[in-house]
């Protein structure tokens, strides 16, 4: 069978859907956007594909990033969910932990958001394992059936989370309960904690399972609807969905593990950033992704994105592999507002509907995008390559009436204040993943993408002393482009809870081999030949007595001294010191990887260094280097050539995104056509 030449990636954002097509014959990339359709997300995906004009019968691979699961939790649109656990422990999820979010630390009236599961939707059953996984009390089938009837018949739940104490050591009770429930209620969706995560911590494991059960019904419907829509248009290739921790999985697997997709949109950009960092020879990179509703930042250290193994949705913990992303509610659609005379930006967003005032769709509150229009950064006639005009007069009026007049400022200074507030919030988020983790941001390059990333990145670089900003092609679609290079991945784990000195290395090796066999089987089921599966081993370790842990990669041969040395070095890098305490192994982890061919970063012919052929015009805009409105040179990015160099103030317009370069900074076009923004003296 002849391999079809087209790969297609689609990323749903808060405001726009980005579709990216790669023709593997020519390495040519095409990109289009369509409005996000929150009520029916699949419609926005199909609209973006239609705008791109891709012949789906020619598509070999369709890969998708979506925050549908995340939005289902935030908007409380998931399935009616129940919990079955051990008798006497039905309140584990409702009690949770006693911690208070840091932004409410001094709020003595703080109340946690309403739970996803009400108490009447929880049930306990007879049966118990001890802390070593031994049966203390056999599972009572009649108790399980009665609990299921109480939830399904009396409370009308459509999805059930099953999570028993210590089941991560032995899943037999959970699996037996699932069989009993399925026999009586085959239409009910069942989520087992041991199918999702085999790790200790009962509350976190229960929370993860509940979120899985809550998301699954709506996620399955969405994927089924999208698959049907693609099939109607001629698609019969492979359908993959991004994982939050990088890599991808088949749509069939995603429907059984939707929690792994909750941060899949931002993950695509980080996968692409790691690839670009490698190709450009940059070991340390900060990713800087600003979309319509949020700003996401992540560290790539020594070529690898920093990973985490616990995330949060609102205050609910999720035991899933994910990138260590710092997210704040600050994007192009973030609303600027006054709080007792103080200017604030976000976290509220105008989203896709109605959107910023300048979109002319009924939005009335000024946003970051409206401020950018007022400051002269966006050409109303060229927005989205001229396919969508902006109403600059309406944006200016909204900023004037709601911000400038109450603050006693000119409209330009009020709009500049919106950027100042956004920049201050951004610096705080970046410091959390750099300075507070022992990293000097001045030793990193800043990779800017998302529709508004290049708009703010040069200002952030100047504020934090970052020496270089990298702006890839089509930055507003960079996350979709990154998905094209995503491997097929599965992450598996087991809890160990033993000191490194006392652990039996032979038993650990046997456990690694068991988990690796599961990883290979999962990859084979997703079309990866067993012989091509790549397996990576890790220990999650801490000094005995510590609370927080660190990850250490281990080789095929387990060596205590090598593991200790690697952990000490990681701890010294992160915290500046080491300790003499014994090391405790919490979990062992295996990542199974099926490699994917990556799109080439083509080298383009160098020009004569003169960017004048790309100069479109000059336009007055606000220069943060001088804090005044001055003429900016406006360049067409498509006509810039490698070797071109010019100084700010300048605007580089590429239709779907604009790079804003204030005075005091210089732009150089590299051999791939990427923009490198540096301080003039550094350049």
Automatic annotation (TrEMBL):
GO terms for molecular function: 5-oxoprolinase (ATP-hydrolyzing) activity. GO terms for cellular component: cytosol. Pfam families: Hydant_A_C, Hydant_A_N, Hydantoinase_A. Residues 506-673 form the Acetophenone carboxylase-like C-terminal domain. It comes from the Bacteria. One of its GO terms (biological process) is glutathione metabolic process. Residues 7-184 form the Hydantoinase/oxoprolinase N-terminal domain. Residues 205-490 form the Hydantoinase A/oxoprolinase domain. This is N-methylhydantoinase A. It comes from Micromonospora marina. The lineage of its organism: Bacteria, Bacillati, Actinomycetota, Actinomycetes, Micromonosporales.
């Amino acid at each position: 069978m002849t391999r079809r030449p087209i790969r297609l990636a689609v990323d749903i954002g808060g405001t726009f859907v980005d579709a990216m097509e790669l023709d593997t014959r020519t390495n040519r990339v095409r990109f289009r956007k369509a409005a996000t359709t929150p009520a029916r997300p699949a419609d926005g995906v199909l609209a973006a594909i239609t705008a791109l004009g891709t012949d789906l019968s020619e598509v070999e691979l369709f890969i998708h990033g979506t925050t549908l699961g995340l939005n289902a939790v935030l908007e409380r649109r998931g399935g009616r969910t129940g919990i079955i656990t051990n008798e006497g422990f039905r309140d584990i999820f409702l009690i949770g932990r006693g911690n208070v979010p840091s932004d409410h630390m001094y709020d003595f009236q703080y109340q946690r958001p309403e739970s996803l599961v009400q108490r009447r939707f929880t049930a306990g059953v007879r049966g118990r394992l001890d802390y070593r996984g031994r049966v203390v009390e056999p599972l009572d089938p009649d108790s399980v059936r009665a609990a299921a009837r109480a939830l399904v018949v009396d409370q009308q739940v459509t999805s059930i989370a099953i999570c028993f104490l210590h089941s991560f050591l032995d899943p037999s009770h959970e699996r037996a309960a699932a069989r009993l429930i399925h026999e009586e209620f085959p239409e009910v969706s069942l989520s087992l904690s041991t199918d999702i995560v085999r790790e200790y911590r009962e509350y976190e494991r229960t929370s993860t399972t509940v979120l899985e059960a809550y998301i699954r019904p709506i996620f399955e419907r969405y994927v089924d609807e999208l698959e049907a829509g693609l099939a109607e248009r001629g698609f019969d290739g492979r359908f993959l969905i991004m994982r939050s921790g990088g890599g991808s999985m088949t749509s069939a697997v995603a429907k059984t593990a939707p929690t792994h997709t909750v941060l899949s949109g931002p993950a695509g950009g980080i996968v692409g950033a790691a690839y670009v960092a490698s190709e450009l020879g940059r070991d340390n990179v900060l990713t800087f992704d600003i979309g319509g509703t949020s700003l996401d930042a992540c560290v790539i250290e020594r070529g690898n994105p920093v990973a985490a193994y616990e995330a949060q949705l609102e205050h609910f913990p999720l035991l899933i592999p994910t990138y260590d992303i710092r997210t704040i509610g600050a994007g192009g659609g973030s609303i600027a507002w006054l709080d007792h005379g103080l200017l604030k930006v976000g976290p509220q967003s105008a989203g896709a509907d109605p959107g910023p005032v300048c979109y002319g769709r009924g939005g009335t509150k000024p946003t970051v995008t409206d401020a950018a229009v007022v400051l002269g950064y966006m050409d109303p006639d060229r927005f989205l390559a001229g396919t969508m005009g902006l109403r600059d007069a309406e944006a200016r009026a909204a900023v004037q009436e709601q911000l400038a007049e109450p603050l006693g400022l000119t409209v330009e200074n009020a709009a500049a204040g919106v950027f100042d507030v956004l920049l201050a919030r951004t610096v705080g988020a970046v410091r959390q993943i750099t300075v507070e983790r022992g990293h000097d941001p001045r030793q990193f390059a800043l990779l800017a993408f998302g529709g508004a990333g290049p708009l703010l990145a040069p200002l952030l670089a100047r504020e934090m002393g970052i020496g270089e900003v990298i702006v890839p092609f089509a930055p507003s679609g960079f996350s979709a482009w990154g998905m094209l290079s995503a491997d097929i991945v599965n992450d598996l784990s087991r809890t160990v809870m033993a000191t490194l000195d006392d652990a039996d290395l032979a038993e650990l090796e046997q456990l690694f081999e068991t988990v690796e066999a599961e990883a290979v089987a999962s990859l084979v089921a997703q079309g990866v030949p067993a012989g091509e599966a790549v397996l990576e081993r890790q220990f999650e370790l801490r000094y005995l007595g510590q609370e927080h842990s660190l990850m250490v990669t281990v080789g095929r041969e387990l060596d205590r001294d090598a593991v200790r040395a690697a952990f000490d070095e990681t701890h010294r890098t992160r915290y500046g010191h080491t300790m003499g305490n014994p090391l405790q192994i919490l979990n062992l982890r295996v990542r199974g990887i099926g490699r994917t061919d990556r799109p080439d970063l083509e080298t383009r012919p160098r020009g004569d260094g003169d960017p004048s052929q790309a100069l479109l015009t000059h336009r007055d805009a606000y220069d943060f280097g001088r804090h005044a409105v001055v003429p900016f040179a406006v360049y067409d990015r498509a006509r810039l050539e490698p070797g071109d160099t010019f100084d700010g103030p300048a605007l580089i317009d590429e239709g779907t995104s604009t790079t804003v370069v204030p005075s005091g900074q210089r732009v150089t076009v590299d051999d791939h056509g990427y923009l490198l923004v540096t301080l003039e003296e550094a350049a």
